[in-house]
C-alpha cells in the first residue's frame, strides 16, 4: 500500500497474522540473537535512544550496513526505529495485536522518496515479505 502519490514520501505497510502468542513474536523482534536469525546480524537492544547496526552482505552500490536508532519500545505491542541506508533515513514501526488465532503483526516502513524511490520501495516490499517468512519460522521454533 502506498500513500498519496502527491505526497513527498511513500509508506510501505505489510500486515501478517501469525499463529503464535504475542509474547513470542515480541521476543523475536527484540532479542538480538533471534533478530539475527530472521532479519540480520545486529547489536540491537530494546532501549529508546540505543543506536545499533544491521549488517548484511555487501552488494554493488551498497555496503550492507544499516544504521538505526530505537525510537519507541512498548513491550509486546510496539517497536519503532530509524533505518538509515543509501542516504535515506526511514522509520520502521512494528505493531503487535493479539488475535484469537495468535498475533497480528503490522510492519510499517515510512519515508521512501516519492520521486525516484520506487526501486527502494519495491526492494523493501520484497525484503520484508521474505523476512516475515523467516520470522514465522523462528517464532515457531521458540519454546
Describe this structure in words.
This protein has 143 residues and is α+β, with helices and mostly antiparallel strands. The protein has one domain (9-140): START domain (Alpha-D-Glucose-1,6-Bisphosphate, Chain A, domain 4, 2-Layer Sandwich), CATH 3.30.530. The chain contains three helices and six strands, in the order βααβββββα. Helix 1 packs across helix 3 (118-140). The chain is globular and about 40 Å long. The relative contact order is 0.24.
Keywords:
globular, Alpha-D-Glucose-1,6-Bisphosphate, Chain A, domain 4, 27% helix, 6-stranded antiparallel beta sheet, alpha+beta, disordered N terminus, 143 residues, single chain, 40% strand
Proportion of residues in extended strands: 35-45%
Oligomer: single chain
- Tally of distinct domains: 1
Radius of gyration: 15 Å
CATH superfamily: START domain
- Classified by CATH, the class is Alpha Beta
Q: What's the CATH topology label?
A: Alpha-D-Glucose-1,6-Bisphosphate, Chain A, domain 4
Low-confidence regions: 1-5
Order of helices and strands: EHHEEEEEH
Q: How are the strands of the largest sheet arranged?
A: 1-6-5-4-3-2
Number of strands: 6
Q: What is the distance, rounded to the nearest whole angstrom, between the alpha carbons of the first and last residues?
A: 34 Å
Topology:
Blueprint: E1 9-18, H1 22-30, H2 32-38, E2 51-55, E3 65-74, E4 78-85, E5 88-99, E6 102-113, H3 118-140
Antiparallel strand pairs: 1-6, 2-3, 3-4, 4-5, 5-6
Helix pairs in contact: 1-2, 1-3, 2-3
Amino acid at each position: 500500500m502506498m500513500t498519496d502519490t502527491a505526497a513527498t514520501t511513500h509508506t510501505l505497510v505489510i500486515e501478517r497474522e501469525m499463529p503464535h502468542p504475542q509474547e513470542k513474536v515480541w521476543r523475536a523482534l527484540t532479542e538480538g540473537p533471534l533478530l539475527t536469525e530472521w532479519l540480520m546480524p545486529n547489536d540491537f537492544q530494546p532501549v529508546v535512544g540505543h543506536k545499533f547496526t544491521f549488517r548484511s552482505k555487501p552488494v554493488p552500490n551498497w555496503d550492507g550496513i544499516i544504521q538505526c536508532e530505537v525510537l519507541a519500545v512498548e513491550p509486546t505491542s510496539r517497536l519503532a526505529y530509524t533505518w538509515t541506508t543509501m542516504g535515506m533515513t526511514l522509520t520502521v514501526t512494528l505493531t503487535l495485536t493479539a488475535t484469537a488465532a495468535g498475533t497480528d503483526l503490522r510492519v510499517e516502513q515510512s519515508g521512501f522518496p516519492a520521486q525516484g524511490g520506487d526501486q527502494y520501495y519495491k526492494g523493501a516490499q520484497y525484503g520484508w515479505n521474505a523476512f516475515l517468512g523467516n520470522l514465522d519460522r523462528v517464532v515457531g521454533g521458540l519454546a
